[in-house]
Task: structure prediction
Amino acid sequence: MNDHRELRHLEPAVGGVESAAAALIALWARSRHSAASNISTAQLQALLSIESHEQVSLGQLGEALGALPSSTSRLCDRLEATGWVRRSIASDDRREVTIRLTASGKALLEELRARRRDDLAQVMAEMPPAARSALLRGLREFTAAADRVTEQRSDENWTIIAGRLLA
Result:
């Protein structure tokens, strides 16, 4: 592992990446808040977690969110009241509750993604073509490096970590 003093020569680049990340996070949040529905971060994280597994048990969802069972159950109450999820009894164990996205929940996530893509496209359209190409090349390399670094440091994928922060 590199000592942070050995990396001082990267400070200007790190500052630039921090600024770009802040702009991206602000754009991401703006996209989410401009959506027709007023969805909380916890609700969005839950929907994304459910979507990634197609269906989850209440326990699995709580574990994915790092939440207590009672908090997860209340969150699911709110999600079900909005019509974004449906709870049902598992066919193989009647004590287990499973949660699935409804068509409305899937549509909400698609709407949020479409708004985010539109907002990102609008920003990128403001960039000269050569800068867009350079950005994409740099982002591919950055993503590959992030994969390598997080693989060494954690048993969690960086995309899962980012999903929690950016939901």
